[in-house]
Specification:
The protein is built from no helices and 9 strands. It has 111 residues and is mainly β. The protein has one domain. The chain is elongated, with a radius of gyration of 17 Å.
Length: 111
């Protein structure tokens, strides 16, 4: 007898229609087993921001967290489709909250 294990189907927490096959994940958190990064997608419902996907059947919702401080000359800022600087995307589900943080890089010069 041969047992075939198929990878879990991952979906967008906001229901934008994105689907992917993921690595084996922990049932409680949806995080990849053995380490690794979460599977992300560019979410149409959040103006193209990168959002972590969740196992199919998980009740979850993603939201963008707008940057509240001054956005100066940093390199790598993320903006949504409305031109707002976004510092993170948070996925809230029954078992907890996950956050993907977009970290810009400061630059400067010495004269």
């Amino acid at each position: 007898m041969t047992l075939l294990l198929s990878p879990p189907v991952l979906v967008c927490p906001n229901g934008c229609g994105a689907r992917a096959l993921g690595a084996r994940t922990a049932a409680e958190t949806g995080a990849p087993v053995g380490g690794g990064a979460a599977v992300m997608h560019d979410c149409a419902s959040l103006h193209g921001l990168a959002v972590p996907m969740v196992p199919e059947g998980t009740r979850a919702e993603a939201r963008a967290i707008e940057r509240e401080d001054y956005a100066g000359g940093e390199v790598g800022l993320r903006y949504d489709g409305a031109g707002r600087a976004i510092m993170a995307v948070e996925v809230e589900r029954n078992e907890g909250t996950d956050r993907a943080v977009f970290v810009p890089t400061a630059n400067g010069r010495a004269d």
